[in-house]
Amino acid sequence: MTSQKLADDVLAKMLSADGFSAWLGISVHDFGPGRVTCKMKIRKEMLNGFGTCHGGIAYSLADSALAFASNSHGRISVALDTSMSYPTAVLEGDELTAVARELRCTDKVGFYDVEVKNQNAVVVAIFRGTVYRTQKKFFPEAV
Predict the structure, then answer these.
(1) Across residues 83-91, what is the average pLDDT?
(2) pLDDT, tens digit, 9 for 90 and up, residues 10-52
(3) Is the full-model pTM beyond 0.85?
(4) Residue 59 confidence (pLDDT)
(5) 63 burial class (0-12, 13-18, 19+ CB within 10 angstroms)?
(6) Which residue has the higher pLDDT, 140 or 1?
(7) What is the C-alpha to C-alpha distance for residues 112 and 101, in angstroms, rounded to an integer?
(8) Which of 25, 28, 31, 90 stands the most exposed, by the fewest C-beta atoms within 10 Å?
(9) End-to-end CA distance of the chain
(10) By C-alpha distance, which of 106, 123, 115 is closest to 35?
(11) What is the tens place of the pLDDT at every residue in 40-85?
């Protein structure tokens, strides 16, 4: 099995059980081993009391991107540490794109950056995540 086929199979399995990403309206684009692009549109119910997007929504988009990218190698990976900065406010109707890229992946841990931009290519969030790579495989016969 090629690394791309394995990544595609993992993504399909993850998305089939991921009601939260579906509720957010996340769609996956340009997916491969150690990388993913995810998109979503900000709805009215995602706004906070100031009329801007709740930080947890943008965080959830980045966190989903981290999950897809870090699990793409076929081993179940879980977040150890994450952080996020919010340089620009997000508004209702904004279309966000999160691009996750693997910085380094060892047998036990992986390091990822996720940059979130709006439809005007303005960076609205910067996310960094470290994952623990378990020994459990999505498809034991494939890896």
Answers:
(1) 98
(2) 999 999 999 999 999 999 999 999 999 999 999 999 999 999 9
(3) yes
(4) 98
(5) buried
(6) 140
(7) 6
(8) 25
(9) 8
(10) 115
(11) 999 999 999 999 999 999 999 999 999 999 999 999 999 999 999 9
Alpha helices in the chain (DSSP H): 3-16, 19-24, 55-71
Place of tokens 């990388």: 35
C-alpha 32/C-alpha 22 separation (Å) is 20
CA-to-CA dists, residue 125 to 69, 92, 116, 138, angstroms: 17, 16, 5, 30
What per-residue string of b and e applies to 66-105 under the rule 16 or more CB within 10 Å gives b? bbbbbbbbbbbbeeeebebebeeebeeebebbbbbebeeb
Pairing of strands 35-41, 95-105: antiparallel
Q: What is the dihedral of CA 75, 127, 39, 143, to 10 degrees?
A: -10
Taking phi first (over 0 means left), then psi (-120 to 50 degrees means alpha), and beta for anything else, what does residue 117 get?
beta
Domains of the chain from N-terminus onward? 3-137 (3.10.129.10)
Residue 143 is predicted with a pLDDT of 46
- Looking at residue 44, its amino acid is K
